[in-house]
Amino acid sequence: MRYQNSLMHDVLKFVPWGQFDRLVDKHGADRSVRTLTTKSQFVALLNGQLSGASSLREIVTTMESHATRLYHLGATAPKRSTLADANARRPAGVYAELFDTMLAQAHRGLRMASKGAVRLIDSSRIRLNALSRDWAHYDATCDGVKLHVVYDPDAAVPVHFAVSPARENDMVQAKAIPIEAGATYVFDLGYYSFSWWSDLDAAGCRFVTRLRKNSPTEVLAERVVLKDGPITADRIVRVRGRLGHTRKNPLDRDLRELHVVIESGKTLRIVTNDLTSPAEVIADLYQTRWEIELFFRWIKQTLRIKRFLGTSENAVRVQIAVALIAYLLLRIAHAAQQAVASPLAFARLVRANLMHFRSIHDLGPQRRPPKAFDPNQLDFALS
Fold first, then answer.
1. What pTM was estimated for this model as a whole?
2. I want to staple 339 with a disulfide (CB 3.0 to 4.6 A). Which of 125, 157, 246, 364 is the partner?
3. Is 268 exposed, middle or buried (0-12, 13-18, 19+ CB in 10 A)?
4. In angstroms, rounded to a whole number, what is the distance separating the alpha carbons of residues 345 and 268?
5. Which of 158, 86, 88 is nearest to 119 (CA)?
């Protein structure tokens, strides 16, 4: 009888293990390690993400119950205390760089063929408990971190991520993001910086964002808009020439301001450096921001990233990086099969069958085999 691997083994085939080993050596992650290797730590954390485990003890108990199947994964079931120590001490950079490697695998040529690409930028706050207060304290009611993401809505994958304490302003991480020349960046009011907008413009990028209510503009020209449509104004404008009394505005060029009425009746002031595209195209681009909100909801609910397995900064960074790697693995594995059309249904089936002897190509609905022909039944029917 032919040997059948577990579904977990099938998913792990998409991990570039050669590059993983090089990253482990680069960061010295296995230096002085006697029992739990970095690979076993990674497999354990992936198992926790894909299975929806909510604690280290649940991960350990589940893996111990499938110890014989772990042999074919090249991993061992960890002890809870050993796994906790590994999460606190093993360098999170191994997993952050592995994410970048796998991103190139999931989306070939992404960073080179960026002209005309759309990039959504946003952050999401994730609450932590009081045990993380020494490094993640925000205010009297919240201790947490921010997950900053640059998202490609066409490929439905994040192309860059960073983790910071929740108290840090979004612009600190935005200015550290590598700018892709020729790309279109869409973001909200959290990234309100004329100097950063000017950097995007200088790199040949198009940006689409919102103006604050109290930001005055000088109207240079009015354009015709459709009567009774959601776009009530289309203007060529300039923002104030000076900021305050001393600082010169770095974005000294013509911009375009649209007034768009949304379903709630609220009017948005959308601003862009694109002076030629139809107003409807600009409004639709801003509306795509909703897709990054859906991504944050997906990883929080499906990968259970709202509950952390450690309290140290390193442990939190490791878990977030592994969660994003798990997301990429699910996207890659889903694209490699045809049995399940929905990515969410595929993720749920992976969770339900993770350590079973199943293939990713065999997760569709199971059909009953046809009944064998019984000539006696035919004779009875004819009589």
1. 0.85
2. 364
3. middle
4. 35
5. 158
